[in-house]
């Protein structure tokens, strides 16, 4: 076991926001110092979010081999829970390497399950002092686990959708199309910026055609992503061609001096963009 900080690429921002308040409630209700959520990976359990009231026992990103974790016994238990007043005395936990390392006694853990009933992690609490947990305490933690499970699934769905929301289509050597669709928030803008720049650099792209026909503008704010993206592409030697500008986008374009000053070619449609580069669409 090692104290590695190896968070999954998923940020679990919704979990981190909601869990802080929930963990504080759990800590008060069960009179424990530490509460945390751990997600099961192929070989290890990784702490996604944690709360330590007076003393840090479990930090976020803490990782432990699955075989030597308390979580394995929680998941394998017929009731999918495990609790003991003192892990140093409990036959299941006393010989695990993690027990003397953590230096805790009271422990309670329950499983996290997805909508199909598959276990994917645990919600656990622990304390330096001995703690006797009642059946009511166990049921309370299970109810909190149900809520957190839904939040984690929402984060995972948002993360997976992020991959679909950066559609880059290679046209030919040195030419790719990026279609910006829907609403672009800060998280998605960061993902688009990173993905496009990596793609442009690794594929040695000379021209990026950015299609705005599916872009949705919210609260009259034109995405600053476009300005930063074009400028960044210019710095790495790629020329930007903007197409599919809708009347709505055009109105916001006029009101933004930064966008007006961009050194980017604008054309009406994809055919015009390809003609600008030197390609022509021809029917067979």
TrEMBL record:
SUPFAM superfamilies xrefs: GAF domain-like, SpoIIaa-like
Pfam families reported in the protein's UniProt record: GAF_2, STAS
Residue ranges of domain STAS in the record: 165-248
Database matches in PANTHER family: BLUE-LIGHT PHOTORECEPTOR, RSBT ANTAGONIST PROTEIN RSBS-RELATED
Name used for this protein in its record: STAS domain-containing protein
Source species: Pontibacillus salipaludis
């Amino acid at each position: 076991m090692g104290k590695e900080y190896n968070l999954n690429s998923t940020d679990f921002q919704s979990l981190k926001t909601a869990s802080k308040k929930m963990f504080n409630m759990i800590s008060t209700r069960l009179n424990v110092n530490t509460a945390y959520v751990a997600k099961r990976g192929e070989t290890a359990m990784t702490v996604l979010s944690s709360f330590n009231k007076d003393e840090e026992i479990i930090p976020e990103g803490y990782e432990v081999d699955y075989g030597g974790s308390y979580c394995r016994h929680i998941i394998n238990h017929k009731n999918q829970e495990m609790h003991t007043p003192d892990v140093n005395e409990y036959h299941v936990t006393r010989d695990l390497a993690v027990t003397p390392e953590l230096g805790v006694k009271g422990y309670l853990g329950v499983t996290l399950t997805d909508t199909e009933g598959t276990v994917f992690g645990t919600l656990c609490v622990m304390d330096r002092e001995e703690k006797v947990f009642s059946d009511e305490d166990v049921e309370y933690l299970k109810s909190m686990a149900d809520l957190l499970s839904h939040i984690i699934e929402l984060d995972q769905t948002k993360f997976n959708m992020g991959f679909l929301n950066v559609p880059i289509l290679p046209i030919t050597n040195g030419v790719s199309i990026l279609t910006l669709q829907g609403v672009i928030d800060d998280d998605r803008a960061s993902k688009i910026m990173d993905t496009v720049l990596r793609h442009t650099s690794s594929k040695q792209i000379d021209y990026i055609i950015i299609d705005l026909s599916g872009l949705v503008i919210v609260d009259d704010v034109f995405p600053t992503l476009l300005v930063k993206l074009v400028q960044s592409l210019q710095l790495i030697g790629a020329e930007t061609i903007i197409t599919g500008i809708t009347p709505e986008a055009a109105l916001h374009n006029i009101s933004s001096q930064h966008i007006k000053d961009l050194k980017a070619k604008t054309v009406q449609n994809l055919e015009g963009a390809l003609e600008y580069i030197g390609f022509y669409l021809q029917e067979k």
